[in-house]
Automatic annotation (TrEMBL):
This is GMC family oxidoreductase. PANTHER family: PYRANOSE 2-OXIDASE. It comes from Sphingorhabdus pulchriflava. GO terms for molecular function: oxidoreductase activity, acting on CH-OH group of donors. It holds the Pfam family GMC_oxred_C. Residues 432-558 form the Glucose-methanol-choline oxidoreductase C-terminal domain.
């Protein structure tokens, strides 16, 4: 792999490339790796640099197409996303979470993944516009390959719960290959291993796709950098792997041939935006109840081929209940709640001279000295002076024998916190809705391109699904002998409106897959209808999204597409026609 940046010395260059991939997130990197290993020369374009920076973060702005984000929701989104996405803010990104830089949004994710369920691919009569043109079984091999890429365990723990139509489900965590106290970051953990046939061009934002309507070929890409440089790329094949927002935006702004944009003959590009909606159902208090639930619905360690893997146990609606009650696929998980007098939070306020109640913060630190000492011991595992084999042994043993403790260390960056309870969190898929969409705003970005605007709302079926989760959880707890959870007032009162759920930054659906162009943007091989060489990868091709954190599924679809591109395709080396110093 070679990595360069688009700079002034490249201005005016024209490049011919066999396969051009737009986007250096996990999907783009996985396709580049697979195709290059099959003999294809790959040019991967990443809008950002190796890491996030403020200049490129300005390109991430997404406007609200209406009044969908009020101050309370913005504060909720900030509390949910702000701790992991360092440069993100709810005002700049009124919808979604995007990170410009190699590795994409894995710079901010929690590493939490699960495969989609069989029902997610089915045509569900109670959900209009549901159904995939492929079945779950057609992705089994690709899911296995994606699992290996993520370093996951092939077998989940046995189901441990089944009451009131709720049953066990498991998420798994993709762990870093280089930092034992972190999750997998594709820019750091995966990109350095790309083969020599991959060339990565950073600070390279595609501003337009050129299209020849006669040959039905995407025949050029206009690429610009924030430094002012620009190049033209002449591709043989193109894969858009820039995420559900940017894939749709790029197709919409490329409208010099078709007024509605490339592939948009039926006004479907950008439409059917789906995500996962998250909302807190209530809380669990009381030390005995917390201990019981943490043992059942906490984290599980499992060893496979000498490596320790970590699972999180939750509850999901059974397929039978979904069909019987006309519901979406949804799940529940339990999240720790920090105490007001958390000693590490108090210590940070004192050290930053931001304490509004110094006496109380000093008392909290003194009472929590054990937590602070434990945190300092955990952080020693990041020290370069401790041998790697020793770190592996310590962390691996901890995952097997104390997975809840390890999960807390992962979530807190190695800093333990004083807890007061467990939050009951619901996550539901959102139903396909033509009016939920990505469109173009009049406002321009720093490169002079119209920004994306989002309209994403939940409706009656999402509200009914969330309320059903709460009612069935209450019933299931009683059947299992647990103390009743403290549920929100709206959970069992249909006359009490739900608060707005937060988008979980699992953007999907804006270039959905279908059997025909009247119902989707790409075919079952992810080729854009009406084109011969333009493909789309990632979550934007998903017609529905299930409840699972979807990166595993995105990677499976990406590897399936890479195999399709490599099968029966002639190989040709990328050729630079002029001004090529940056690429050779």
């Amino acid at each position: 792999m070679t990595v360069t940046r688009l700079s002034g010395r490249d201005g005016g260059a024209t490049i011919e490339a066999d396969l051009v991939i737009v986007g250096g997130g996990p999907v783009g990197l996985a396709i580049a790796d697979r195709c290059a290993r099959k003999g294809i020369d790959v040019l991967l374009l990443e809008s950002g640099l190796e890491q996030q920076d403020q200049a490129h973060e300005a390109l991430n702005e997404v406007l609200a197409a209406d009044d969908m984000q009020h101050p309370d929701l913005a504060a909720h989104r900030t509390g949910f996303h702000g701790g992991q996405a360092l440069l993100w803010n709810a005002q700049r990104q009124a919808y979604g979470v995007r990170c410009r830089g190699l590795g994409g949004s894995t710079q901010a994710w929690a590493g939490k993944v699960a495969p989609f369920d069989k029902i997610d691919f089915a045509k569900r009569d109670w959900i209009p516009d549901s159904g995939w043109p492929i079945g779950r079984e057609e992705l089994n091999a690709s899911l296995d390959q994606a699992r290996e890429l993520l370093g996951l365990c092939p077998a989940a723990p046995e189901p441990r719960f089944s009451e009131a139509g709720l049953r066990s489900c498991y998420w798994q965590f993709a762990r870093s290959r280089t930092d034992r106290l972190d999750v997998m970051r594709f820019g750091r953990d995966f990109a350095p291993g790309l083969p020599p046939k991959v060339r990565v061009l950073l600070d390279a934002t595609v501003t337009r796709l050129g299209f020849d309507p006669v040959s039905q070929i995407a025949n050029e890409l206009e690429v610009a950098s924030l430094s002012g440089a620009s190049v033209i790329i002449k591709p043989r094949r193109v894969v858009l792997a820039a995420g559900a927002i940017e894939n749709a935006r790029l197709m919409l702004v490329s409208n010099d041939v078709e007024p509605g944009g490339i592939g948009n003959h039926h006004d479907l590009v950008g439409r059917y935006l789906i995500d996962h909606a998250g909302i807190r159902l209530g809380e669990v208090k009381g030390s005995k109840n917390i201990v019981q639930l943490a043992r059942t619905f906490g984290f599980y360690g499992q060893s496979h081929t000498g490596r320790s893997h970590m699972f999180m146990h939750g509850l999901t609606l059974s397929p039978e209940v979904q069909e019987q009650d006309g519901l979406l696929n949804a799940a529940i998980y339990f999240a720790p709640l920090r105490a007001v007098d958390d000693p590490f939070d108090a210590l940070k306020r004192l050290l930053r001279r931001q304490s509004g109640a110094k006496f109380h913060d000093v008392v909290a630190v003194m009472k929590g000295i054990g937590f602070i000492a434990r945190g300092m011991g955990t952080r020693m595992l990041t020290s370069p002076h401790i041998p790697q084999w020793s770190k592996d042994m310590i962390v691996g043993s901890a995952i097997r024998f104390a997975p809840n403790l390890v999960a807390d260390e992962f979530a807190s960056g190695g800093i333990p916190h004083k807890l007061t309870g467990l939050g009951i969190e619901a996550i539901t898929e959102t139903a396909p809705n033509r009016d939920n969409r990505i469109m173009l705003a009049e406002k321009l970005d720093p490169l002079g391109i119209r920004r994306a605007a989002a309209h994403w709302r939940t409706g009656a079926i999402e509200a009914r699904t969330i309320r059903t989760l709460a009612v069935r959880l209450n019933r299931a707890f009683g059947a299992a002998g647990y103390a009743a959870p403290d549920l929100a007032d709206w959970a069992s009162d249909d006359n009490c409106p739900l608060p707005d759920p937060v988008d979980l930054a699992h953007m999907m659906g804006t270039t959905r897959m279908a059997n025909d162009p009247e119902n989707g943007v790409v075919d079952s091989n992810c080729r854009v209808f009406g084109t011969n060489n333009l493909y789309i990868a990632g979550g934007s091709v998903c017609p529905t999204g299930g409840h699972a954190n979807p990166t595993w599924m995105f990677l499976a679809l990406a590897l399936r597409l890479a195999d399709h591109l490599a099968t029966g395709q002639s190989r040709s080396n990328a050729t630079v026609l002029c001004k090529t110093s940056a690429f050779t």
